[in-house]
Design brief:
Dihydrofolate Reductase, subunit A; two-stranded antiparallel ribbon; 10 strands
Length: about 170
């Protein structure tokens, strides 16, 4: 299964100012790219805080897998094939999705989820929209982690507007 990490990031490496924050600081073109890629994959894997930011407006036609330490707390919200909560590891999640016929998954955030997939060496591509802002304080793309270095190669750049650029990387093998 192919996994694609997609994130918008500030010039100082932040994906948000606080754990639950709607992404109002990116452009319509960035949001449109994210939605298109997520719907094309058919599945989005995200953490609980990221889920809370999109809960009112989730993308349709996309299975949302929410990683949480307490999936039982969300049993009433679970809708198999649409919204599922799990405490499974990244590897087990991907194995389950593969068995269900999925070929691609978007890793949608946040920092803990990005870190878990990177640490498990389960990220094939990274798409970063660089936003010309600085937050100073906030949540980094990856938490401090102790992993072996991983190399990625730039394979595409796209100017999304006068000030935003989308960088697309593939893992080097």
């Amino acid at each position: 299964m192919k996994t694609i990490l997609i994130a918008a990031i500030t010039l100082d490496g932040k994906i948000a100012r606080k754990p639950v924050e709607a992404v109002t600081w990116t452009s319509k073109k960035d949001k449109s790219f994210f939605k298109k890629e997520t719907q094309k994959a058919g599945v989005s894997i995200l953490g609980l805080n990221t889920y809370k930011t999109i809960a009112k407006n989730p993308f349709t036609k996309t299975l949302h897998i929410v990683m949480t330490h307490s999936p039982e707390k969300f049993a009433a919200k679970t809708k198999p094939g649409i919204l599922e909560f799990t405490k499974s590891t990244p590897k087990k999640i991907l194995k389950n999705l593969t068995s269900r016929g999925f070929k691609k998954a978007v890793i949608s955030g946040g920092s803990e989820i990005y870190t878990a997939f990177l640490k498990a060496d389960l990220i094939d591509e990274i798409y970063l929209t660089i936003i010309p802002k600085t937050f100073g304080k906030g949540i980094p793309l990856f938490k401090e982690i102790n992993i072996k270095p991983t190399d990625f190669k730039l394979f595409n750049t796209t100017k999304l507007g006068p000030n935003e650029i989308l960088l697309q990387y593939k893992k080097s093998h």
